[in-house]
Specification:
Structural class: mainly alpha
Number of domains: 1
Largest sheet: none
Helix content: 40-55%
Number of helices: 3
Radius of gyration: 14 Å
Strand content: under 5%
């Protein structure tokens, strides 16, 4: 069982991308080897933390995981 049940992930939202945007995401998935859902979650959270001005507490990002 989970120690903190609030950490269980649930579907939150869906995004609509045009063909060009989708190809960028697909290319990044191919390059990093990270699943699409994980990649998109990391990108969204990174942007949210930067917008809030607390990006220094972010966990390893996509670029670091691709190395």
């Amino acid at each position: 069982m989970h120690q903190d049940t609030r950490r269980i992930r649930q579907r939150y939202a869906a995004i609509n991308l045009d063909e060009y945007e989708a190809k960028v995401i697909d290319a990044l998935v191919d390059y990093t080897g990270i699943s699409k859902a994980t990649l998109l979650r990391q990108l969204v959270l990174k942007e949210a933390l930067e917008t809030l001005g607390v990006s220094d507490i972010i966990t390893p990002n996509v670029a670091q995981r691709a190395q």
